[in-house]
Amino acid sequence: AGQEPDVRIVTGWPLTYVCAFWNYSSEESAKAKTQKELIKTLKELKKHLPAEKRNKGSKSTTLNTLKYALRCVKQVEGTFFIQPSGLDVSAYTIEEIDSITSEYTLKNTDIFAVAVSLITGRIVYISDQAASILNCKRDIFKNAKFVEFLTPQDVSVFYSFTTPYRLPSWSMCTGADSSPSDCMQEKSFFCRISGGKECEGDLQYYPFRMTPYLMKVQDSVHAEDQFCCLLLAERVHSGYEAPRIPTDKRIFTTTHTPSCVFQDVDERAVPLLGYLPQDLIGTSVLLHLHPNDRSIMLGIHRKILQYAGQPFDHSSIRFCARNGEYITIDTSWSSFVNPWSRKVSFVIGRHKVRMGPVNEDVFLAPATVEGKTMDTDIQELTEQIHRLLLQPVHSNGSSSYGSLDGNDHIMASSSESNGNGVRERVESEEISKSKPVSYPTS
Description:
Blueprint: H1 7-11, H2 15-46, H3 58-76, E1 91-92, H4 94-105, E2 111-117, E3 123-126, H5 129-133, H6 155-161, H7 180-183, E4 189-197, E5 203-217, E6 226-235, E7 251-256, E8 262-265, H8 270-273, H9 277-280, H10 296-307, E9 312-320, E10 326-337, E11 344-355, H11 376-389, H12 423-430
Parallel strand pairs: 1-5
Antiparallel strand pairs: 2-3, 2-6, 4-5, 5-6, 7-8, 7-11, 9-10, 10-11
Helix pairs in contact: 10-11
């Protein structure tokens, strides 16, 4: 009496079996909990997967999600904010930042300003207009890191363009000789930003042109001011939707290697193609052309070799916009010929849109989610073009390189392949510098 019953008598099993059963039940419970958390995490990750990478099968979507997440981690691995030292940068209060940036946000309803700490990456200040532009509540930005609102594939682009030593001081723009339009002419980059979940449950990202500056923000909590990156973010709309880009200004330039890989893309291409520069750079030119027009590129490169760097016009080709529809562009071509090897180093294309897409919103994800792949025909054509341009160019008594506009300065920024280099080449011809708005409208 008063003694614990023998487990072997109650269950009829040996004690070792009972202990093993209890251990097994405990392990199964832990596994079920882990599996539940894993499924929950995968569902959350899948929301960040671009629509064009999603497949109908759940297994393939899961695999694409994991590959995509791994690639994004590798892109930002080892990237972090470093506080700059020895820089003469002016300090501002939050109220002062709000006052000086209102000069831009009040004049353009598509622009918002945000100050991001270079130490923590958190949002220190963001203008009220951001919530309305991103269709979200203002509270969502409180104590949040700015990169959390970027699409994963653009995070590394954001970090590379906001490295402190690359940033111009904001105080340079607020001097007596500066104007708002001067500030908007600084080196910019592009990112897609989301304000959170939409009604359907998916994240909706909008393309923005980001212009970064360096400043100090007076911290009321800590004794020292903290270095921040102030960004003027301007939403980019399709060039075919109102207010439309005039037809005579639907022009952009590109450069590509002898292997037909995009090396540089003019920022004016963004509202016309729907792609950000980083979407195209490093990809094959042929991959984005209409299948029936790809063979035309072989004839174009033969002519490039023949013209020895001098510009020439060619027949139109069809280029696939981000929404999956084709636009027709009239093309002009030139090239840079290395004066020592007498070989083509890179090819410059100047393109004018003749016919836009039926669906004017070029930023929409394509209806079909299947990705573009390098098929055998593209690979063979690429090899033919590459072999062709390995031949030395015969001098015709002209300069070793040509310009599409008759000005040699078109080549000056070709060596700076950062996704926005080409915009400086003929920007003065196509875009009025007096306007703080990025793109001309009718």
